[in-house]
Structures are given as C-alpha cells and as structure tokens.
Specification:
The protein is mainly alpha-helical and 222 residues long. It is 82% helix and 0% strand. It has one domain. Keywords: Membrane, Transmembrane, Transmembrane helix.
C-alpha cells in the first residue's frame, strides 16, 4: 500500500467514525430527517466521488483526480437528491401494491420484511436503475469529451456523446450483470434498513461498485 492509499482509507475511517460516534450520529440523523435533499446531496457527492477516485486507483495503479472532478461531484450530489425522493417513491409504492394483492404478502414479519425489500429493490433497479445509469453515463461522457472545462462541455453535441459511449458494454455488463448480481441483492439489504440510512447505504455501495468496475476494466485491458 502507498501513502495515498492510507490517506484514502483515513478519510473513509473519519466518515465512518462520524456516523457511528453517538453525538455526531445524532446530528446526522437529525439533519437527514430535517433536510433529506441537502443530506442526500452531501452523502452521495462525497462517497461516490471517493468511489471514482478509488476506481481510478485500481484501474491505473496510481491516484489521479478524475477529469472535471468538480462537475462530477456536483452531478453525484444532484443524483443523491434524486435518490432521496426515488427511494421513498418505490418503498411506499411497493407497500401499496402489496397491500392491494398485486404482489405476494407474507404473514411472517421477518419473511414479509425481506420480500418487501426484495420487491422494492427489484422494481427500482429494473424501472429507475437503467434510466439513472444511462443518464450518468451520458453526463460523464460530456465531461470527458469536454475535458472537464465547462465552456467546452456546452459545445459538445449529443450525437457525439451517444456515439462515443460503449452501449454494448453498458447493456451486456452494467445492466445485464451488475443489476441482477449486485444492485438487486445489495439494495434488498438497503431497503431492510430504516429510511434514514438508505441513501447513505447506496453511497457506500457506489464505492464497492466502483471497485468492481475498475477491476473489470483492468482485467479487460490485460
């Protein structure tokens, strides 16, 4: 491990300590309930950006700031605000259709909690997931083609962005593999947690997925 690896791990440890220490944990919970959109922005922007940095470290073998890091950070933040809304939409919507008998319901409390979380995760990842992932792929490509400079980004044409994206890889790996094998199981666990922790859990999962994607790219390159 290199010095910068320890710095990255130290940053992650500080975040975990902040979330688990009783006093700061209480502040976190209070802020999340009072300001869900703002906290969604902060949580996802910080942790997902750390995931991108880690992914570059794994794929390149050294640390490098992502191109257009500030714009990526802001986009992750707005996606975090969307998560704060979408997670509740699918959680409450799934409960609604289960109560109407459109999806199975179980009398056993533990089994029902698990199956509710599974249905919520499945519906969200099949309905919202592909749209979110495609949108994020497009915004990242805009930033890459514009070399992270805002004046260049606005000059990029959508057709150039669409043609630049590896849609086969997006469909064959991101959608057909990571969704059923990673996101649905992982978000099943997420939806078994109290609502205040769900966006945070998704933020930590983005770090894990960043590592998975980086290892995949590194293996493909070899």
């Amino acid at each position: 491990m290199k010095k910068k690896d320890f710095i990255w791990l130290a940053c992650l440890a500080i975040i975990v300590l902040f979330l688990t220490y009783p006093t700061t944990h209480h502040l976190f919970m209070t802020a999340t309930k009072a300001h869900p959109y703002l906290m969604g922005f902060i949580k996802v922007a910080i942790l997902a950006s750390m995931g991108e940095i880690l992914a570059l470290r794994i794929s390149l073998g050294y640390y490098r700031k992502p191109v257009g890091f500030l714009w990526r950070f802001i986009i992750w933040g707005f996606l975090g605000m969307a998560f704060a809304l979408v997670f509740d939409v699918f959680a409450m919507g799934t409960l609604g259709v289960m109560e109407k008998g459109l999806l199975p319901n179980f009398s056993n409390l533990i089994a029902n909690k698990f199956i509710t979380a599974f249905f919520t995760s499945t519906l969200m990842n099949l309905i919202f997931g592909p749209t979110f992932m495609a949108l994020h792929r497009i915004t990242d490509t805009y930033i890459d083609l514009g070399q992270g400079q805002l004046n260049r980004i606005f000059k990029i044409k959508l057709v150039d962005v669409v043609n630049h994206i590896d849609w086969y890889g997006f469909l064959s790996f991101v959608l057909l593999k990571t969704v059923p094998l990673f996101w649905i199981p992982a978000h099943t666990i997420t939806f078994m947690l109290p609502g205040e922790y769900r966006v945070l859990m998704a933020s930590f999962l983005s770090i894990a997925l960043g590592g998975i994607l980086a290892f995949s790219k590194r293996k493909k390159a070899k």
